[in-house]
From TrEMBL:
Residues 35-154 form the Phospholipid/glycerol acyltransferase domain. This is 1-acyl-sn-glycerol-3-phosphate acyltransferase. One of its GO terms (molecular function) is 1-acylglycerol-3-phosphate O-acyltransferase activity. The keyword Flavoprotein does not apply. Keywords: Acyltransferase, Transferase. One of its GO terms (cellular component) is plasma membrane. GO terms for biological process: phosphatidic acid biosynthetic process. SMART domains: PlsC. CDD domains: LPLAT_AGPAT-like. It comes from the Bacteria.
């Protein structure tokens, strides 16, 4: 109930006023039945903009840290994310990936829309990074279509580290559904999962027109302090292998 209060009364109208989102390809999102919407992830506000413009409810897998903050602020944040249709996923440890897949399949089993950011984290520089194969596992196991989605302009509106967004228009663009029925029963094959994931990322790239980096975003983020320290000490950066 609170999800729809946020969507139609409290948060949705405010987001539409601030960002004036231009929606393209909304007809590609099925009106009924389970499906995965896989998008790029540029801003904290992405979590809320897409639910605000979709006619159907969508559930996202969100990092568990949003739900475990201390004190009153932490409890309020957790309540807000749960109310907005977010499911906490622990991204640490060996079982993290499997837990995310189980949660995602549970959403799809109920015939609902599941929102996924295949990059696994927000882009720190506005570029599109290599996708993780969890989206392919869920698509093949559930036998559902994947709708690629591009958020355009949200990085400029609210880049990482900026608490309050800038008031500026954004575009949310949906592509044609991707059907992976030809790979049914092959979700144990690593080469198939990589191929499916890369096809999804290419579709997102085509919609977003971002620069693509064939590296996981988390790895790229982790390298940044090392690179900065090396530059400060005059040490050249070693090429990636």
């Amino acid at each position: 109930m609170f999800y729809y209060l946020l969507k139609y009364v409290l948060l949705g109208p405010l987001l539409r006023l601030l960002f004036r989102p231009r929606i393209e390809g909304l007809e590609n999102v099925p009106e009924t039945g389970p499906a995965i919407i896989a998008g790029n992830h540029l801003s904290f506000s992405d979590h809320f903009l897409m639910p605000a413009i979709l006619k159907r409810r969508i559930t996202f897998l969100a990092k568990a840290e949003y739900f475990t903050g201390p004190g009153v602020k932490g409890r309020l944040t957790a309540f807000f994310f749960r109310s907005a249709g977010q499911i906490p996923v622990d991204r640490s440890g060996k079982e993290a990936g499997q837990a995310a897949i189980r949660e995602g399949l549970g959403v799809l089993d109920k015939g609902e829309l599941l929102g996924i950011y295949p990059e696994g984290t927000r882009s720190h520089d506005g570029r599109l990074y290599k996708g993780k194969v969890g989206v392919a596992v869920m698509a093949l196991r559930a036998g559902v279509p994947v709708i690629p989605c591009a958020m355009i302009g949200t990085f400029e509106a609210q880049p990482p580290g900026k608490t309050l967004p800038r008031i500026r228009p954004v575009t949310i663009r949906f592509g044609e559904p991707l059907d992976f029925a030809r790979f049914a029963g092959m979700e144990q094959q690593k080469a198939v999962l990589r191929a499916v994931t890369d096809e999804i990322m290419y579709a997102i790239l085509t919609l977003s027109e971002q620069e693509y980096v064939d590296q996981y975003a988390a790895v790229a983020k982790a390298e940044r302090p090392t690179e900065r320290s090396a530059r400060e000490h005059g040490v050249p950066r070693a090429p990636l292998g």
